[in-house]
Amino acid sequence: MDQVHVEAPAFRARAVSVEREFYSDFPVVLNYVARLTDDIDGAAAITCAAFRQIADGLRHRPSSEGMRRADVLRAATELSRQSLRPRRWFRRRRAQQVTLAGFPQSEARRALRRDTVQRALSALPFEARVMILLRDFVKLSYDELAEVVDVAPRKLVHALDRSRAEFGEIYDYIKF
Asked: Nearest-CA neighbor of 65 among 95, 113, 129, 21?
């Protein structure tokens, strides 16, 4: 993807700031969606749709508000959930297994661990995957995370701990 262009709202000063925010957060949101859906090809379309949805919503907001990262992540999460909804686990396309032939040993270990982490993430329920990715990968604060997933901050800590524990169990089970 060489260049992404988004038509910003009508005000020129606001348009520049929206475009700047778009370009700064796009790679983070794209990687988040790719890990969430386990589909790099569809991640770009979902990410662009999330940014477009938020940019269209900016037209109806007061001019002092800009594009917030939490709004974009919430839209990306919802669009990812919708894209995964029709699929069933038995119809899901299997990821290619990593082969160790031709890799240096350190690269092979890294590739194998990355594949194992992605498989463990894919095995988690959607909400648990969202919380782990947003907190540990995107590095959102607990308040921002609570805003994105619509959970009270007190309950969020327990839900995140349960999600991490479940991820650890799955990871330990599938690693070799």
From this structure: 21
CATH 1.10.3720.10 fits 105-174, yes or no: no
Specify the DSSP class assigned to residue 61. Answer: S
Task: Note the pTM of the prediction, 2 decimals.
Answer: 0.63
3-state secondary structure of 92: coil
96-128, pLDDT tens digit by residue? 554 545 556 676 677 777 788 888 888 899 999
- The band of 4, judged by pLDDT with boundaries at 50, 70 and 90, is very low
Q: Average pLDDT in the 61-83 region?
A: 77
- CA dihedral of 54, 55, 56, 59, whole degrees rounded to 10: 110
Q: Could you state, in order of their start, the residue ranges of all structural domains in the chain?
A: 12-84, 105-174
Q: Which of 39, 34, 40 is nearest to 137 (CA)?
A: 34
DSSP for residue 97: P
CA–CA separation, 12 and 15 (whole Å): 5
Nearest-angstrom CA–CA distance, 23 and 18: 9
Q: How many CB atoms lie within 10 A of CB 146?
A: 20
